[in-house]
Design a protein that fits this description.
By secondary structure, the protein is mainly beta. The chain folds into two domains: about 10-65; about 65-130, SH3 type barrels, CATH 2.30.30.30. It contains one helix and nine strands; from the N terminus they run βββββββββα. The chain has one helix spanning about 135-140, and strands at about 10-15, 25-35, 40-45, 55-60, 60-65, 80-85, 90-105, 105-110, 125-130. It has a five-stranded antiparallel beta sheet, with no helix packed on it. Strand 6 (about 80-85) and strand 7 (about 90-105) form a beta hairpin. The protein is elongated. The relative contact order is 0.18.
Length: about 140
């Protein structure tokens, strides 16, 4: 596997050096620039309207994402329109699969638009958006 970050690479972006702290999301590298001997990587912008940060990162704030192995079939494909579900299979949103990353031997799907660009969904958290989401009858009677 190539561990070098280059234009087109998928990377997880972090606020702090050493890839610690909050992940700001999975993004694609679009440009490289050398400033004072340090390589900076420009990444795609965030879907999160609350994020107004810089899109340039040094390598110590990026972690290369692993793509699925060649020839691997996944349940969902890039471009699929899907319904996303959270804890207890409660509907969260509908989006388009933008990236598929290989994590712990299984695919993780990243959708757009999203307010949580650092959060990937697994096979059990998505449903093809062929028909409208149906409410879970047990949950309709709950008072929050």
């Amino acid at each position: 596997m190539n561990n070098q970050i280059e234009v087109g690479s998928l990377v997880f972006c972090y606020r702090t050096e050493g890839c610690r702290g909050r992940c700001e999301g999975l993004r694609a590298v679009t440009e490289l620039e050398v400033r004072d001997g340090t390589i900076y990587y420009k990444v795609t912008s965030s879907d999160d309207s609350m994020y107004n940060g810089d899109y340039w990162y040094t390598a110590d704030r990026l972690q290369l994402a692993q793509r699925p192995p060649v020839g691997t079939e996944t349940k969902f494909k890039i471009g699929d329109r899907v319904h996303c579900f959270g804890t207890y299979h409660i509907y969260c949103s509908t989006g388009i699969i933008e990236h598929i990353v290989w994590f712990e031997g299984k695919p993780d799907y990243y959708v757009t638009p999203t307010a949580t660009p650092w959060y990937g969904y697994n096979d059990n958290s998505l449903q093809l958006a062929i028909e409208p989401v149906r409410a879970v009858p047990e949950l309709e009677s709950l008072v929050f």
